[in-house]
Amino acid sequence: MLPASVVEKEKARVTFEKEVRKGNSASLVEHVKGNSFKVRIYPLQPHSPKKVSVTFMSDLIAADKSLCFQMPLHSRSSLRQFSISGSVNTEEKIEVTSSFKNEIKVVSDDGLYKIELHKKN
């Protein structure tokens, strides 16, 4: 994994392109609009495994006495593998309601819930 930091958009783009020209590994995450982001990664070798890890924090959305987490995921091609994990710190009991409900692993430890989903095509 490469460490990253938040910088001004133009500076980030220039730095990314400079590193690519040098042949170095580089990545860039750009805010597009709303909750949309664009990710650029160099180099990506054809037909080789790729692992992209993105960490973010989000408030849960209150709806019908529930708290909801939504993560839209758009890909131009099918994904061979997808994993997501998260944690919630609460004294309330968590109930998973999802089309993947039977595939989501939830582990509770004194108010800290760890949630994981792993999918393979």
Task: Report on the architecture of this protein.
12% of the residues lie in helices and 36% in strands. By secondary structure, the protein is mostly beta strands. The mean pLDDT is 82.
Which helices and strands, and how do they pair?
Blueprint: H1 9-22, E1 26-33, E2 36-42, E3 61-63, E4 66-68, E5 81-89, E6 105-109, E7 112-120
Antiparallel strand pairs: 1-2, 3-4, 5-7, 6-7
Structural descriptors:
single chain, 121 residues, mainly beta, 3-stranded antiparallel beta sheet
Please report which band the strand proportion falls in: under 5%, 5-15%, 15-25%, 25-35%, 35-45% or over 45%.
Answer: 35-45%
Structural class by helix and strand composition:
mainly beta
The run of helices and strands is: HEEEEEEE
Rounded mean pLDDT score: 82
Summarize the main sheet.
3 strands, antiparallel
Low-confidence stretches: none
- Alpha-carbon distance between the termini? 24 Å
- If you compute it from the alpha carbons, what radius of gyration comes out, rounded to the nearest whole angstrom? 18 Å
- Share of helix, binned: 10-25%
- The overall strand count is 7
Lateral arrangement of strands in the main beta sheet: 5-7-6
Overall shape: it is globular
Helix tally equals 1
